[in-house]
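agent> call fold_tool(seq_1)
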Amino acid sequence: MGKPRDKPNYRRRVLRLPDLDHCKTAVLNSLGSPASRRVYEYAIDQFIAWYCSEPRLAFNRIVVVRYRLYLESRHLAANTINQQLAAVRRLAHEAADAGLLSPELAAGISRVRGVKQLGFRSGNWLSAEQSSEVLKHAGGDTMRAKRDYAMLAMLFGCGFRRSELVGLELDDIQMRQGHWAVVDLIGKGGHIRTVGKIPALSLCRLRRRRKIVRCSTSPIGEQNKTPSGTRPWNPTLDKERQG
């Protein structure tokens, strides 16, 4: 009979700062969205700062429960606390995969419950009249004012995220089935969606913006002046505006 295989040594209970940094890098590398990486990096940094503030503190379920109580004492929102705890659970799983933490301890940390959410925040949004009032005060004759007006009109009319609008190019606006649309828009997390119809007001403001920046491939939010290789704006926009 062969020699029995030695079980890996999981005697380590206290993770040092280099171990936490290694696990943090592994967590961030497993995330595809830049926004998720930014949120998780902040949450893990907050936990590491609290974890290292007390010497010889073990990384187990009791410690994570204490961290949840610490977050609650700061009167943070339930969604914020649960987001921070999700990052700590992910950190524990990566530590277990790297052999720095026993699977039993990682499983115990994953069983730490989050804070109960009582209802959902309704948020704050503008009505059609309020949006018109914002656009009314955003006008101007300068290049910056016309650019800002066009961007606000696209945000109000199409519901773009800020990152989607900044990366939008004029060639992305195409004629489909008799109206203008933004096709195959890559949004948050790499999801692809299509804005089926752009309102006439947004198209009108883009047309005025294009008269100033006569470039077919420049992003909507770009402020640079006209490079070479221009082409006239499609006259169908005038029909859309009149309709």
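agent> call fold_tool(seq_2)
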Amino acid sequence: MITALVVSTVLLWIVVVVLAGMVLALTRQIGVLYERVAPAGALMIGRGVVVGEEAPVVRATLVTGHTEMIGAPASDRRSTLVFFLSPTCPVCKTLLPALRSMARDEASTLRILLAGDGETAEHEDFRRRERLGEFPYVVSTQLGMTWQVAKLPYAVLVDAAGIVRGHGIVNSREHLESLVEARDRGLASIQEFARQQGVPATHAHEHPHGPQGEDRAHAHDHATVA
């Protein structure tokens, strides 16, 4: 009886040791996989504003009636994240909670401004319906044309000095945060960091956006940063 108990105890310890070894091996593989997977970032396209250069300054009127020089140096020394959206863009709506969270978490260093084009009344209704009163909101066709925004949702990060620090198509909070991360690292985009590390590029979905707020058919194509 005692012999059987000893044998079973030894077998149980062997099983425990084997399982512990498997857990350690899996943990190591997860770490290796994490290092090899590129960080997801906003997709930069080959046109529009240029990272490292001054943002084109556009005079625009907020839906509240106030006038703002978008792209100009900020007196409060905060960066400005200009988020281009449309009331008819489904992905744009899914990012609103992420924008609210970022606005709270980065309040001391970041200001978020919403921008769209088309009918002002449509945007005002969208602003009320989605309870976006906490964000400055501008409806300006000139802004989108000057900054050459062709896809939605799109974001441009301008620092306190009026210098473009990042821009690209975004469809997740990770993409939005990648703009701030790239700025903090002194890079043009998070994909540049990925290329420096020798890891694969990431993908992003695009939502076509035209002048005067004309929404074309929703696209599900993948665009890849080489």
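agent> summarizing second result for user.
Helices lie at 2-36, 90-94, 96-105, 120-129, 141-146, 173-185, 190-197. Residues 165 and 183 are 6 Å apart (CA to CA).
agent> awaiting next instruction.
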